[in-house]
Structures are given as C-alpha cells and as structure tokens.
Amino acid sequence: MKTLAQCSLAVLFLMPLGLAAQSPAGSWKLNVPDENGTMIPLHVDISDDGTYTLDFGADGKVDARGKYSLDSDKMTIQDTEGSDCTEAGVYAYKNDGTTMTMTRISDACTGRGGPEGVITMEKR
C-alpha cells in the first residue's frame, strides 16, 4: 500500500513535466510558399503569454502578430496585426520537443495551413 501511495505521488509530481513538454512555446521554423509558389523561410516565435510573432523571410523583422489559446490538444490561433485575415482557426497540435505539427480542425483563413491543412514546424 505504501508503494502504491509513493507511485501515485511520483506521478502527480511528474505530471507537470509531461504537460510542459506539450507547450507550443518556443522558436520554430518552416518553409511556406509565397504568392508565386516559391518557398520562403518562416520563423514563428510562440510565447508563454499566449502571443506569437511571424517573420516571413527570416530576415529578423516581425511581419505579423497574433494570439493563441490552448484547450487540451487543441490550439486556437488568431492573427491580430499584419494579416489580411484575423479570423480564429482551431488546430489539433502535437509537440515532441523538436517538431510541432498542427492539423486544421476549422479555419476561416483559407491560406493558413495550406491546402492539406497541416503545418509542420521544426525547433530553431
């Protein structure tokens, strides 16, 4: 019985570490097509405070800003500055620490997520 109690306490103390690994916060990179279909680098910086910035061309200049919220394995994103579409989009996300994949559930911004609705980012 004492061992079961110790194991239960260990799980409770380690649970936040598992949840932290799921956080989308960090610096990410991917390539996206421009209006001509040429692939350009995109840097995405996601903060713990529920905001993100986008740097198209990876030139060090913030081109768009937004906000996000989390609900279990779902992330709602919404551009707030620098974008033609400011509607919210909902994505299922998985983060293994080096790769984050976001799969569109619903999004009124048709350009986000490309035709397949999948965004895959690598840690910078």
CATH architect. name: Beta Barrel
Tally of separate helices: 1
| Mean pLDDT over the residues | 86
Shape annotation: globular
Which class do the helix and strand fractions yield?
alpha+beta
Total domain units: 1
Structure notes:
With 124 residues, the chain is an alpha+beta fold. The protein is built from one helix and eight strands. Helices cover 16% and strands 48% of the residues. The protein has one helix spanning 2-21, and strands at 26-33, 39-46, 51-56, 64-71, 74-81, 89-95, 99-107, 118-123. The chain has a single domain (24-123), classed as Lipocalin (Beta Barrel). Mean pLDDT is 86; it is low at 1-21. Strands 1-2-3-4-5-6-7-8 form an eight-stranded antiparallel beta barrel.
What's the quick description here?
This protein is of the alpha+beta class. It contains 1 helix and 8 strands.
Main features:
1 helix; globular; 48% strand; 8-stranded antiparallel barrel; 124 residues; alpha+beta; Lipocalin; single chain
Give the SSE map.
Elements lengths: L1 H20 L4 E8 L5 E8 L4 E6 L7 E8 L2 E8 L7 E7 L3 E9 L10 E6 L1
Antiparallel strand pairs: 1-2, 1-8, 2-3, 3-4, 4-5, 5-6, 6-7, 7-8
